[in-house]
Amino acid sequence: MRSAISLLRGRNFGLLFSGRCVSFLGNAMAPVALAFAVLHISDSPSALGIVLAARMLPNVLFLLVGGVIADRLPRSTVLVGANLTGGVAQAVAGVLLVSGRAEVWQLVVLEAVNGAAFAIFYPADTSVVPLTVAEDRLQEANALLRLGTNATMILGAALAGVVVAAINPGTAILVDAATFFAAAALLSLMRGIEAAAPAGASVLADLRTGWSEFIAHRWLWTIVAQFTVMLLGFFGAFMVLGPVVAERELTGATAWAAILGGQSAGLLAGGLVAMRWRPAHPLFVATIAVFGNALPIAALALGLPLPLIVAAALVNGAGMELFGVYWYTALHEHVAPEALARVSAYDALGSICATPVGLIASGPLADLIGIDATLWIGVALIVVPTALVLLVPEVRSLRSRAGGPLLVAA
After folding, report:
1. How much is the pLDDT for 362?
2. Of the candidates 142, 138, 284, which has an alpha carbon nearest to the alpha carbon of residue 222?
3. Does residue 142 carry a pLDDT above 90?
4. For residue 79, which of 115, 119, 124 has the smallest C-alpha distance?
5. With respect to CATH, is domain 7-189+203-400 assigned 2.160.20.80?
6. Contact 160, 46 (CB under 8 A)
7. Given 3-state DSSP classes, what are the helix, strand and coil percentages for the chain, each rounded to the nearest 5?
8. From CA 238, how far away is CA 297, in angstroms rounded?
9. Model pTM score
10. In Å, how far from its chain's centre is CA 41?
């Protein structure tokens, strides 16, 4: 831990860490607040799915452009602009909700703007880390970044339940807006972050170069294909139907906040493990950890008591964090630095391209066949592709390039 924390003495990494922590405090509040804001306005799972899909669809449309921008421009500058845009969208949404004038279509438009901002943000955020630390510290840096942001997510999820229950969802959304602006201010202080690659002849030429790098790594594109299906099931079942189950069968916003808080606590625990453990085959461990995504969905389908659902979410979070640290470290170590943002964009686009379908379809499907049956479909969409990707030799055998003081396990 002391070794990892020493990274914070570096100016740019310290600012990146602080900006992420501030922003994720608000990001943890937003899902709880938005879910119950929409349910209070419409009492419709389908409406919630549409609002969530409105945030996802611009990711599909703008992620590749975001990758080109993040390779052509200083990545810290891109992060500042994306945070400011997201902050404005959330501020407007919060004002509408607090004033009682919000309608579902307005939230759809504002979440679309927020999603477009994230599409520009994500490739820059993923690819800026190697510009702030030495290569042999990348796994520690990724683990520390995610550990810090996940710790603030625990606080944010808990705070969201209190604010939504005691005041209203709009206030929580306004807090999220404030964190966007604070993060932009911190990230604007980063220095010496230059553009990673010169502009190509055209955006399409840049995208072709990024695509060539993407398909050159079989472990990369097969795991992205796995996540195309896996996230279709996870987001449709957990993010849409989870709040509905919490509202109808548990204690509403406080129960859903507890579940998300358990997931965040798992993220924190997974980060502590990943900070110290460097397995010989990190992607094999990461893929095994993905099976945990099915646990909270199965717990909801089985109608288990809230403490058991929270425990399932905790295991889910730990698995997600192990995957995240090992996955991003693999990208940072094995992908050409000058194409990293574009490859990250292809990664994100492939992973989420089917997610809007799950978000939109889960409500009507639950109306047709029942919530429990739809939840079990979500479980299958997680388990089957994760099992299949373990058949890829590179997923089982890829090794880390970096040495360092971490524990090594066979």
Report:
1. 83
2. 284
3. no
4. 124
5. no
6. no
7. 85, 0, 15
8. 6
9. 0.75
10. 26
